[in-house]
Amino acid sequence: MSTMSKSKKIRSFLAVGTVVLSLAVSTGQLTAAGLVSGNAPSSGDNSVGLGRSTIETPIYADDAPKVFAHAATVRDGLGFPAGANRSGKHVKDALQKSEYDEVDELDNAGRQISIAQFDTAGDLVAAVRLDIPSGFMVKATGDGASKAAERALAKVSLAAVGQAQVEDDPVAGGWNVHWDRVQDGFAVRGDETRVRVWQDGRIQSVAHVEHKLASAPVTQLTRDAGQRAVSGQLDKWFAGRGFGYAIQGMNLEWVGPNTAFDPAKVGATGEPYRLAWVANVQPSGSISDVVRLITLYVDAGDGTVIGGDVVE
Q: How far is CA 256 from the centre of its chain?
């Protein structure tokens, strides 16, 4: 996986309001991140200077009983502490094109002790407990952490498919257990299920990212045809400029079309992920002082460039 794809993990759906959960999942530590409301701010709202793209609307157990019931099931299934009170909100972020419901468990002072977030279909996308682990007598093993993560996912109706990857965290302690999504034998770029397990085996957080996929093309471009499509595009960009390039790798993956090389599409609604040849390209010449790596997504059906990324 390229450096740029790692940097984008979790970002597609768990954006802005859920970035705190991403940090909790990846590092076991929580940082404060508020949401800017386009209407009157809800209780506890904190502005982080993100403009007025995000709107929060309070929701209540009487109005959204399924959301609150699901949050309680997730809380209990993951072993999170119950709060003295609960609050909820519906969040709509126009900039990131994300929308979700959030239910917070609150202590007697109104402080959050856990958060659960659900997409518009009612599926869990992230949950995290915000208390600090107490002293522990027994330290779980990596294998024990993996099994604890699998049990936790089963209790919140998320499937652990494939081989778990278990990463020890020598700084914060505990483990990060994650499963990368694969469809029809090909990786889905950025999609994963990730569980943060404390040293004593308790679950600290869960995050799940899953994008809709388009149908796979009936006829797929061969690797050689995909490489010719990539070279054709690069030759147009670099022709007569004294620049060169080398294609370092070509892999079939499910990717999200983006506006990296087509500014006309900025602001367009997100499309389903498509199967594409993903090419990592190393520039040479003077351009390499500015651009270290170019990634191109070439549709595996018709050979058109549907996006990519640039590492400067």
A: 12
Task: Note the residue count of the chain.
Answer: 312
Count Cβ neighbours within 10 Å for each residue of 71-99 and write b for 16 or more, e otherwise.
Answer: bbebbebbebeebeebbbbbbbbeebebe
Q: Which helix (H) or strand (E) segment is 194 a member of?
A: strand 186-197
Longest dimension (CA), the chain: 68
Both tokens assigned to 162: 């494939």
CB 124 within 8 A of CB 131: no
Neighbours of 17 (CB within 10 A): 25
Tens of pLDDT along 296-306?
999 999 999 99
pLDDT digits (tens, 9 = 90+) for 183-241: 999 999 999 999 999 988 999 999 999 999 999 999 999 999 999 999 999 988 887 77
What is the C-alpha to C-alpha distance for residues 62 and 142, in angstroms, rounded to an integer? 42
Instruction: Quote the CA–CA distance of 16 and 50 in Å, as a whole number.
Output: 9
Q: Measuring CA to CA, how many Å separate 163 from each of 158, 209, 210, 266?
A: 15, 17, 17, 37
Tokens representing 127 are 């949950």
- Please, are residues 56 and 89 in contact by the beta-carbon 8 Å criterion? yes
Q: What is the pTM of this model?
A: 0.76
Query: What is the C-alpha to C-alpha distance for residues 120 and 72, in angstroms, rounded to an integer?
Result: 17
Q: Are strands 112-118 and 124-129 parallel, antiparallel or unpaired?
A: antiparallel
Instruction: Please state, in angstroms and rounded to a whole number, the distance separating the CA atoms of residues 60 and 247.
Output: 54
